[in-house]
Specification:
heterodimer; A: about 260 residues; Rossmann fold; five-stranded parallel β-sheet; 9 helices; 7 strands; globular; B: about 325 residues; seven-stranded mixed β-sheet; five-stranded mixed β-sheet; 12 helices; 12 strands
Chain lengths: ~260, ~325
């Protein structure tokens, strides 16, 4: 399967799941990042999902979980047909990941600002036990409003956690407006740099670039943040950059139209 | 209690290499011996309680056993959502240690009082809550923590609390309620280091000819439902005493069980009032103002006992019958 057909398939899966919830734009903005991680960066497979040596991934922006479910299904962590149960009563696939139910979901998330501290603790625990595994944590740029993100950033820096890689899905939009309106003039890169992190900026939809910047070794034992410039709703032109698709389920004619636009993109 | 915690943690830390000690920049000099033994497992997280609890959750997820330490309100309310989601929901085996529960930090003021920690934590599934009453019980709780496979909260006092139990060997099992004073005239149920005041109150009551039992509850969550249900089965008067507001505490749980059982127990709940103290007071003064010192507790029980006795008098005999040991005289 080519990378393009993989990414198209993931986006099609997301569109179909999104009949049952909002957050389609959120999932579409981070799906290339997740694909790069699971296919070409992380050492974690369905066979090693319980191994202490595995790389870990935490979706701190838990509301983007349709993208996570889609890649977990493609990689064989869960059965592909389970995706059809997303959002249904009794399904293991909730609108934010449930604790301990889905193979490959390291921890439940959904309330923002929690994932980085947990990931940092995992990275510290792995180092303490002499394990070479890495921890990847994906956050939103809106999520970086949370003070707890910066508590974790300081802890990771103090712990010299070169095995921790934070990723910011910087699509520039948060729930009620643009990140710029909420935090005018804020440079996330400068803030992360100020906390002693290695800062890399990347195109969050350039697969090869993502693989390179996410997978490269740590510099000077410092934790790395990759700030990914992304587009909310990426791949479906009428969703791109439109905050309405933070909330609106994909139903009726929107489903077919979205799939056509994806194929044309 | 604080010193007992560190004294018990040290051998555990040496023996069990899963143990990691995290502090929210508190406990100056108290963990030096841990650091001397293995600095890699001692982490000063700085004044970042939310980050510290999340960090501990991550450590636990790799198989380690973190103890996080701060002053009770900072270790609980400040990072409540991290305790709920990162520890309880995600099943992270972390022990949260709150020093200075209740009014232990008296003159430091309401910012430092841990009078609502149990109530808020009691809303969280899967969390064990320990309220030891003296340093021996602290040691037993630390041992229980090492064997527990779920998150827990350990509520300490400071260092001034009197000893209740004379030796570690004679200290009752902390996993279940214990009868620490046997009597025939109703029962006082309590938790935590206010047990000492309760026992002093019982001494006062004894002098007045009233001989209640005393039950102490150390493992408060999960709540010992069956024990309390059995305790109230014969309809005896029950007074609960806690260094905590009523909401979510020992008294409310006991009241619920009494109401559900329908045995007609006379009941009263002593707890910290829902107000912020209006000025600076030490713990003893705060307890006295709340009616939670030995005098206040004995008076409350005396009133309860008198009411219970009056209720059992036959019509026309008011004031003349004797129920139980004796009708109490004025204190």
């Amino acid at each position: 399967m080519t990378k393009n057909s993989l990414l198209l398939g993931l986006r099609r899966d997301i569109i179909k799941m999104a009949a049952h919830s909002g957050h389609v734009g959120v999932a579409l903005s981070c799906v290339d990042i997740l694909a790069a991680l699971y296919v070409d960066v992380m050492a974690c497979t369905p066979e090693t999902v319980d191994s202490p040596e595995r790389d870990r991934f935490i979706l701190s922006k838990g509301h983007g979980c349709m993208a996570l479910y889609a890649i977990l299904a493609r990689m064989g962590f869960i059965e592909h047909q389970v995706l059809a149960s997303y959002g249904h009563n009794g399904s293991i696939l909730a609108e934010h990941p449930i604790a301990g139910k889905v193979a490959g979901v390291e921890c439940a998330t959904g309330t923002l600002g929690h994932g980085l501290a947990i990931g940092a603790g995992m990275a510290r625990g792995l180092k303490l036990q002499g394990l070479g595994a890495r921890v990847f944590v994906l956050m939103g740029d809106g999520e970086c409003n949370e003070g707890s993100v910066w508590e974790a950033a300081g802890l990771a820096s103090a712990g010299h956690l070169g095995n921790l890689i934070a990723i910011v899905d910087a699509n520039g939009l948060q729930a009620c407006g643009s990140c710029e309106d909420v935090s005018p003039g804020t440079s996330l890169a400068n803030i992360w740099r100020g906390f002693g992190w290695e800062v890399v900026e990347a195109d969050g939809h350039n697969y090869q670039e993502l693989v390179e910047v996410l997978g490269r070794p740590a510099v000077g034992g410092r934790p790395r943040v990759v700030i990914c410039c992304t587009v909310k709703g990426k791949g479906v032109d009428f969703m791109e950059g439109d905050l309405e698709w933070h909330y609106r389920p994909v139903r009726g004619d929107d489903v077919g139209e979205s799939l056509i636009r994806l194929a044309d993109a | 209690m604080r010193d007992a915690f560190f004294a018990e943690l040290l051998p555990l830390f040496k023996r069990d290499h899963r143990v990691v000690f995290l502090t929210g920049d508190l406990g100056y000099k108290l963990f030096d011996q841990l650091t001397e033994y293995d600095p890699s497992r001692v982490i000063n997280c700085g004044i970042r309680e939310a980050g510290m609890v999340g960090y501990a959750a991550g450590l636990a997820k790799t198989g380690l056993l973190p103890f996080v330490y701060s002053i009770a309100p900072f270790a609980t309310l400040r990072c409540l959502e991290q305790i709920k989601i990162d520890l309880c929901y995600n099943r992270a085996n972390v022990v949260v240690v709150g020093v200075g529960g209740g009014y232990a930090y008296g003159p430091n003021g309401s910012t430092h009082h841990g009078v609502d920690d149990i109530g808020v934590l009691s809303c969280l599934p899967r969390l064990t809550v320990w309220t030891p009453s003296d340093s021996h019980e602290v040691r037993l709780c630390v041992r229980a923590a090492a064997a527990l496979d779920s998150p827990a909260y350990l509520r300490l006092g400071r260092n001034k609390e009197p000893q209740v139990f004379s030796t570690l060997q004679t200290t009752p099992d902390v996993s279940k309620p214990a009868l620490v004073r046997e009597g025939s005239d109703g029962v006082l149920v309590t938790c935590g280091f206010i047990l000492h005041e309760v026992l002093k109150a019982v001494d006062i009551l004894n002098q007045a000819g009233i001989h209640p039992s005393v039950v102490r509850v150390t493992t408060l969550r999960p709540f010992p439902e069956e024990y309390i249900r059995n305790l109230c089965a014969d309809g005896k008067p029950i007074l609960t005493v806690e260094e905590h507001v009523a909401t979510g505490g020992l008294g409310q749980e006991t009241a619920r069980i009494i109401a559900e059982a329908g045995n007609g127990n006379r009941f009263r709940m002593l707890a910290i009032p829902m107000t912020f103290p209006d000025a600076c007071y030490d713990r003893d003064s705060l307890l006295a103002r709340a009616g939670l010192d030995a005098g206040g507790i004995s008076t409350s029980f005396h009133q309860l006992w008198s009411a219970a006795c009056a209720r059992q008098l036959a019509p026309g005999e008011k004031g003349s019958a004797v129920v139980g040991n004796s009708l109490p005289s004025e204190l």
